[in-house]
Each structure stands twice: as C-alpha cells, then as structure tokens.
Amino acid sequence: MDTLQSKTSFEEWTEQKSNGRFTNWLKAIHQEKWESVINHRFTNELGEESLDKDTFSQYLVQDYAFVDQLVKLIGHAIGTAPSLEDRIPLVNFLGQVTSEENTYFQRSFEALDIPEKDQTDPQLLPATKKFQQLMAEAGRSLNYANIITVFIVAEWSYLSWASRISERSYSKFYFGEWVSLHANPEFRSFVDWLRNQLDQIGPTLSTERQQEISELFEQSLDCEQAFFDSAYL
Ligand SMILES: Cc1ncc(CO)c(N)n1
C-alpha cells in the first residue's frame, strides 16, 4: 500500500515524478479510500453474479436518483467549462447518460419489477441524500475545477471497478450491461479526457486550492463508499 500522506502536496509529489498527472496525485494521496471503493464487496458480488436481486434493485433505485443529480452536475460542468471545445465532450456524455443509460434503467426496472413510485419518487437513503448534496454544492460553486472533481471520482472509480469485472459474460442483462456501460472504449476515453481537464487546471492552482480539491476528492470517495455500503443495510 502506498505510504503517501494526504498532506503530501502536489509540488512535493511531482518533484519525484516526471510528468505526474494532477489526478494521479489525488488518487495517490487517497489510495486507501480509492482501493476500498473500487474493490467493494458490491463490485465483487456483481462480478460473480452472486449479488442478491433485492440488493441490486435497491441500489438501482437509489442510483437513478443519483443519476438525476449527476445530470444537473454535468449541466453545471457544461455551463462553466472554459470553451466550446471543452463543452462538446460533456454534452455528448450527457446525451449518453440521458439516452442509453436512461433506457438501461427503464428496462432493468421492468425486468426487476420495480414499482413506479420507486422509479420516480423513491425513499432516499441517507447516503444518497449526502451524495446529492455534495453534487448540488459543487454545482452551486460554479467552479469548474470543483465540479469536475466530484464528477471525476464518480466516473473514474466506476471505470476502474467495471474494467476489472468486464471480461466475463453475464447471464442477466441488468448485471452485464451495468458493467459494460462503465467499461467500454468510449467511456474510457471520456474519463481520460475528463481527468485531463483537471490535470491541466490543477497545477495552476495555489497550494491552498489544491488542498481544497484534494478534500473534495476525498469527500466524493467517502460518498461512493457509503453509497455501496448502504446497499447492504
Ligand atoms: C453512486 C454512483 N457513482 C458513480 C456512478 C457513475 O456514473 C453511478 N452511476 N453511481
């Protein structure tokens, strides 16, 4: 396990690295939490298709509410991105979430017999509310770096665990497609592009602001962890 302290500044860290990406610094200083999220029991059971159907159903219901807030966050990212060139990949990704991913949820809800009320107005778990609040707050900051930091944790962590379990074939489409939605070449290149956005901004920020971004990255990881944990409550 990495022995880096969360206090290691980006400046200190890059001195020992040639071409160290800002987002790799963020991951390195929160390595333990990162590993815990991407190797969560939920992802392991999903990868073995041994995940309990009710556990997955509850997770999907909560996640659809997460996705609604994520769509709003992407809207804020689009509005605060520095140029049209930067807005376009965000717009395309937003299009995917609201088409392919949205219909994945619709088809899964039907296959899993999820009541209408749970699809449109579910009882939110505390972890879902907390994550929504973090995204809403980042959106309200109207600060592109803050906004994409939360966004990066969400997409990069999903890419990481999904890639680990994407080799096998799945008998249930709602398991298999949930993995392939987060482990395909287009998604991979979007996540890399998104990280690059922050890799470019990060090094230009003051040490204090870099520390704030690091804290936001950590809070986002905490939200991911709690979100998976609450599938088992
Ligand atoms: C909780 C959570 N984090 C990240 C993603 C990826 O968008 C998701 N669907 N749900």
UniProtKB/TrEMBL annotation:
The record's section on Gene3D superfamilies has:
Heme oxygenase-like (1.20.910.10)
Asked if the record carries the keyword Hydrolase, the reply is: yes
The first-level EC class reads hydrolase
| Record-annotated Thiaminase-2/PQQC domain positions | 30-232
Q: What is this protein called?
A: Aminopyrimidine aminohydrolase
Mind telling me which PANTHER family this protein's record contains? BIFUNCTIONAL TH2 PROTEIN (PTHR43198), SI:CH1073-67J19.1-RELATED (PTHR43198:SF2)
* Family statement: Belongs to the TenA family.
Q: In which pathway does it act?
A: Cofactor biosynthesis; thiamine diphosphate biosynthesis
| Pfam family for this entry, one | TENA_THI-4
